[in-house]
Design brief:
about 325 residues; Rossmann fold; UDP-galactose 4-epimerase, domain 1; seven-stranded parallel beta sheet; globular; EC 5.1.3.2; Epimerase_deHydtase; UDP_G4E; UDP-glucose 4-epimerase; NAD
C-alpha cells in the first residue's frame, strides 16, 4: 500500500512498483494528490490515514504485505503557521497507520522522511550520523514519525526504514508532474511559461557562485530507492533505521537557472533579490549508505531533471 500514492512523488513510486511487477493499492485523501495520477489498474481508496478503520480494511481487503508511507502535509514554511494541522496529519496520522498495521499483522514499512529533520547542519556533507535539529513543525513531525517507527519496532517487531531526502524534481513521464506551489522547479517553469523572469533569492552566500547549494534528485531515482527498500524488507533483509538519498555534491540555484535557460531555449537573466530568512548557504548529503544497501544511484543529470520537468509542464 502506498499512502499518498496520488501525489507527485507517490505516483512515481506506484509506477516504479508496476515496472517490477509488484501490485499496489493507493490510499490518498486527494487533498494535494490527483486521481488522474493513479493508473487505471491500481486500486485507489480515497480516504485519510487518520481513519484507522479504513486503513485496516484496506490492508485486509488487498492482502497488503508492506507499506510505503508518503501521505502527509509537506510544506515546511506553511507548517510554521499551521503547526496543529501539521502534527495531526504527520504525527497522529502516522500513529493511526501503525495502529492499523499492527491490527492486521503488516510488519514492513518504508517511511518518506525529510532532510528537514537536520535543520541547518554546520557540516559540508550531511551523513546519517549528523545530529538532527529540525527548525519547523514539518521537520519536527517527520523526525517524530521516525521515532514512532523506531519505538513500534522495539515494541512489536515492526520492520522499517526511513528515507531522508532533499529537493525532488523532474518527471518520469509527462503524465506526472510537480504541482506544488512552493517548490523551485515548478515556480521557475511556470514563470518561464508565462513570460516572467524567474528570481534568485540571495546571491551573497559563501558558495562558489554566491547562491544557495542544495541536493536535487530526480523523482524516478527516488522512486526506485523506495521500491528497493520495500523489497528488501519484504524479503527479510536488514536495513539501517535511516538513509539519506543525497547527491554528495549538490547544485546551486544559479546552476539551475543556467540549466533552465539551456534546456528550454528561453534566454533570460534571473532577477536577484535579497536572501530569505532561514535559508542556509549549503545543505548537501552523502548517499553512500543508500548506495551500499539500496543500490541508490543518481542516474539523471541536471539537464535530464530540467528537461523532463519542462516536457511535463508543456504537456499540461
Amino acid at each position: 500500500m502506498v499512502t499518498g500514492g496520488a501525489g507527485y512523488i507517490g505516483s512515481h513510486v506506484v509506477g516504479a512498483f508496476g515496472l517490477v511487477g509488484l501490485p499496489t493499492v493507493v490510499l490518498d485523501d486527494l487533498s494535494s494528490g490527483h486521481r488522474g495520477f493513479v493508473p487505471d489498474e491500481v486500486p485507489l481508496v480515497e480516504g485519510s490515514i487518520l481513519d484507522t478503520d479504513l486503513v485496516a480494511r484496506t490492508l485486509a481487503e488487498h492482502d497488503v504485505v508492506g507499506v510505503v508511507h508518503l501521505a502527509g502535509f509537506k510544506y515546511a514554511g506553511v507548517s510554521v503557521d499551521r503547526p496543529l494541522h501539521t502534527y495531526e496529519q504527520n504525527v497522529t496520522g502516522t500513529a493511526h497507520l501503525l495502529e492499523a498495521m499492527a491490527a492486521q499483522g503488516v510488519q514492513n514499512i518504508v517511511f518518506s522522511s525529510s532532510a528537514a529533520t537536520y535543520g541547518t547542519p554546520d557540516v559540508d556533507l550531511v551523513t546519517e550520523e549528523t545530529p538532527t535539529a529540525p527548525e519547523s513543525p514539518y521537520g519536527e513531525s517527520k523526525l517524530i514519525g521516525e521515532w514512532l517507527l523506531r519505538d513500534q519496532g522495539r515494541a512489536a517487531g515492526l520492520r522499517h526504514t526511513s528515507l531522508r531526502y532533499f529537493n525532488v524534481v523532474g518527471s518520469a513521464t509527462t503524465d506526472l508532474y510537480d504541482t506544488s506551489p512552493h517548490n523551485l522547479f515548478p515556480l521557475v517553469l511556470e514563470a518561464l511559461a508565462a513570460g516572467r523572469t524567474p528570481r534568485i533569492n540571495g546571491t551573497d552566500y559563501a558558495t562558489p557562485d554566491g547562491t544557495c547549494v542544495r541536493d536535487y534528485i530526480h523523482v524516478a531515482d527516488l522512486a526506485d530507492a523506495h521500491v528497493a527498500a520495500a523489497r528488501t524488507l519484504a524479503d527479510g533483509g536488514t536495513l539501517q533505521r535511516v538513509y539519506n538519498l543525497g547527491s554528495g555534491d549538490g547544485v546551486s540555484v544559479r546552476q539551475i537557472m543556467d540549466a533552465m535557460a539551456r534546456v528550454t531555449g528561453i534566454d533570460f537573466t534571473p532577477d536577484e533579490a535579497p536572501r530569505r530568512p532561514g535559508d542556509p548557504a549549503r545543505i548537501v548529503a552523502s548517499g553512500e549508505a543508500a548506495a551500499r544497501d539500496l543500490g541508490w544511484t543518481m542516474r539523471h543529470s541536471l539537464d535530464d531533471m530540467v528537461r523532463s520537468a519542462w516536457e511535463a509542464r508543456q504537456a499540461h
